[in-house]
């Protein structure tokens, strides 16, 4: 699949017009501001959480891959899986309403990575006349815990003044307000206000059980056999430490709960452009070895198996299939892939993908270079190997006899229509399956085939060019139905072919709040189809 950052090309700024009844939080009367109190932690022993009744935001992010749902109340739901994200301007704001006057003495702001480096907080009793309570500058994100003088108000507004990245807006997981218990009758501590749901408590218990198993390297639940149907998803992160987080662990628990048996864990290195011979880890976007090892251990502790899937992407956003190979490039690639072969061996990885969509490098011209790399990998890693060929590349890969599995990133075009009926999608897959089967027979390749990637956006027309990068994705109509039917057509057709031994859906994220129009199935119609079929297949 093309580099993830490509999918963030299009930025749309939509100012939302939600309103409280007879209230406009946008009106602000300038008044002299008191001296700003220090941003220090306040004692919490006598404080209660001040429950918020309503919230209003100046705007919502509409970037398709990363935008959360446009709901300002996500800052007041005690969940770090939901957030408010603004449009991409300075002076965006969010305003919360207690429903009645309450006394505030502590403010906690839990920022997403798009934080405000400078912001102010104001209060009001009528959402018309505002009084600045505090301004903080030179901030570094994370969590702000701010002690303020006792302030009685009904409304509290946070106004962003400067952003950490000019290409982003500002984004907040939670805005928590606290005050003295004796001044706020009817309010309670946070944990009493938001009692965890049964599912959340079960996930917490599972995470506790998993962590008990993470003392060292977790053994594999068993080797992958050629008769086994790989019930997989690609698990993707472009952050050095994200896979170390509890959020990631909970997402892996979720995958286990819906019947996923195999997780393709991605690790991305980069090269400057298609001609560069140097492959390198990015200091911010490449998953660290520590976080990669943690994720593998958690997956194993949950009883799932791992396909380790290293990628090479281009810093200039060109497609990796256009890489121009050279002697120097193969030297660099060999060092890169052997590093991950060593990790795969050390952490009991069940399947290693030796490359992804490197179309120009896998032709017969460079066969000897690949045979040398494969030979060196076999010396280090003792498990099975697969190569992930692009959907239009698999017929020219020169080293299939050396692989244990034939892998395809199966973004085959299906129809020319938006929202086609299921029968048309199935007919298209029957045609593609016939072509693959004939190719296997003609080339005497008696090897199992897995789709190392297959996926569709949840927008209209996603079946036409499943690989396509859509700069205008945010302007397209959502269609969970088309995405779900595309997935269903894969199951209905391919599972009847004896050579087809599984697939890895592209993709699921450690963060469940992203991908509303993207490939992820989480929380969409396709999630149930995936769950039902994975629970049926052996």
Report on the structure:
There is one protein chain. The protein is an alpha/beta fold. The chain has 2 domains: 4-193, Galactose-binding domain-like (Jelly Rolls, Sandwich), CATH 2.60.120; 228-536, Glycosidases (TIM Barrel, Alpha-Beta Barrel), CATH 3.20.20. Helices cover 23% and strands 25% of the residues. It has helices at residues 190-193, 198-212, 246-257, 289-301, 327-346, 367-380, 422-442, 480-494, 525-536; strands at 13-14, 47-49, 54-57, 60-61, 84-85, 93-111, 116-124, 131-136, 143-163, 171-180, 230-235, 262-271, 305-314, 351-356, 385-390, 405-409, 449-454, 500-508. Strands 2, 3, 5, 6, 7, 8, 9 and 10 form an 8-stranded antiparallel sheet that branches. β16 (405-409), α7 (422-442) and β17 form a beta-alpha-beta unit. α2 packs across α3, α5 (327-346) packs parallel to α6 (367-380) and α8 packs parallel to α9 (525-536). The chain is elongated, with a radius of gyration of 26 Å. The protein starts with 12 loop residues before the first strand and ends with a helix. 45% of the residues are buried.
């Amino acid at each position: 699949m093309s580099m993830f950052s490509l999918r963030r090309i299009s930025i749309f700024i939509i100012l939302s017009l939600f309103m409280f009844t007879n209230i406009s939080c946008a009106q602000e009367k300038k008044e002299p501001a008191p001296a700003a109190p220090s941003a220090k932690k306040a004692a919490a022993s006598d404080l209660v959480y001040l429950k918020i009744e309503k919230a209003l935001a100046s705007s919502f992010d509409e970037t398709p891959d990363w935008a959360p749902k446009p709901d300002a109340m996500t800052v007041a739901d005690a969940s770090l899986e939901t957030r408010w994200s603004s449009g991409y301007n300075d002076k965006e704001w969010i305003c919360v309403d207690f429903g009645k006057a309450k006394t505030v003495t502590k403010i906690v702001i839990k920022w997403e990575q798009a934080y405000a480096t400078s912001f102010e907080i104001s209060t009001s009793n009528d959402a018309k006349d505002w009084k600045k309570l505090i301004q903080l500058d030179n901030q570094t994100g994370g969590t702000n815990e701010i002690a303020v003088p006792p302030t009685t108000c009904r409304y509290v507004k946070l106004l962003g003044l400067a952003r950490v990245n000019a290409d982003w807006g500002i984004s907040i997981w939670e805005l928590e307000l606290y005050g003295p218990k004796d001044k706020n009758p009817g309010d309670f501590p946070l944990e009493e206000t938001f009692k965890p749901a049964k599912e959340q408590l079960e996930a917490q218990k599972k995470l506790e059980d998993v962590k008990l198993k993470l003392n060292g390297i977790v053994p594999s639940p068993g080797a992958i056999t050629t008769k086994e149907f790989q019930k997989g998803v690609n698990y993707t992160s472009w952050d050095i430490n994200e896979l170390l987080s509890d959020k990631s662990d909970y997402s892996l628990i979720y995958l286990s709960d819906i019947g996923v048996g195999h997780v393709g864990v991605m690790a991305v290195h980069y090269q400057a452009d298609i001609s560069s011979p140097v492959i390198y880890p990015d200091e911010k976007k490449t998953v660290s070895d520590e976080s990669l090892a943690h994720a593998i251990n958690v997956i194993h502790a949950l009883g799932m198996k791992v396909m380790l899937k290293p990628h090479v992407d281009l810093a200039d956003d060109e497609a990796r299939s256009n890489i121009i190979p050279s002697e120097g490039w193969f030297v660099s690639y060999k060092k890169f892939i052997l590093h991950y072969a060593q990790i795969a061996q050390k952490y009991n990885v069940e399947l290693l993908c030796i490359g992804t969509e490197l179309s120009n490098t896998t032709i017969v011209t460079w066969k000897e270079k690949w045979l040398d790399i494969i030979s060196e990998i076999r010396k280090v890693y003792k498990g099975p190997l697969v190569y992930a060929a692009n959907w239009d590349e698999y017929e020219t890969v020169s080293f299939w006899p050396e692989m244990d599995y034939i892998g395809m990133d199966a973004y085959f075009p299906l129809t020319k229509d938006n929202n086609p009926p299921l029968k048309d999608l199935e007919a298209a897959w029957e045609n593609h399956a016939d072509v693959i089967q004939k190719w296997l027979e003609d080339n005497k390749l008696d090897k199992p085939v897995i789709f190392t990637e297959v996926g569709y956006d949840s927008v209209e027309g996603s079946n036409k060019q499943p690989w396509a990068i859509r700069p205008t994705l945010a302007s397209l109509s959502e269609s969970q139905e088309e995405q779900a039917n595309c997935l269903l057509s894969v199951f209905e057709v391919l599972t009847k072919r004896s050579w087809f031994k599984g697939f890895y859906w592209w993709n699921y994220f450690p963060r469940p709040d992203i991908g509303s129009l993207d490939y992820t199935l989480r929380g969409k119609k396709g999630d149930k189809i995936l769950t039902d079929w994975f629970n049926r297949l052996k």
